[in-house]
Amino acid sequence: MSPRLTADDVRDVRFSMPRFGRRGYDEDQIDAFLDEVVERLEGRGTLTAEDVRQFRFRRPPWGKRGYNEQEVEEFTARIADTLAGLTR
């Protein structure tokens, strides 16, 4: 298991683009989601590990590549683990 994430870890994360010809996840939606995670890690907000596990990211608009799916999914799993640890 990875160490718990901090609000700064979430603020500082950067995702690459998927390889050319592929569409990843919508950047604006991911950025808004990460803002919610930061709020929760700072003691505000009500986001839970289950909320994170059930969240579905959409594709970016046509013509945009978005964020790399695998990187987002791996980081999201770390977020869920971190939030699960807050409620234990």
TrEMBL record:
PANTHER family hit by this protein: CELL DIVISION PROTEIN DIVIVA
Family per record: Belongs to the DivIVA family.
InterPro entries assigned: DivIVA_domain, DivIVA_fam
Gene3D superfamilies (alphabetical): 6.10.250.660
Name the UniProt record assigns to this protein: Cell wall synthesis protein Wag31
Domain of life assignment: Bacteria
Keywords: Cell cycle, Cell division, Cell shape, Coiled coil, Cytoplasm
Location within or outside the cell: Cytoplasm
Signal sequence extent: none
Primary location group: cytoplasm
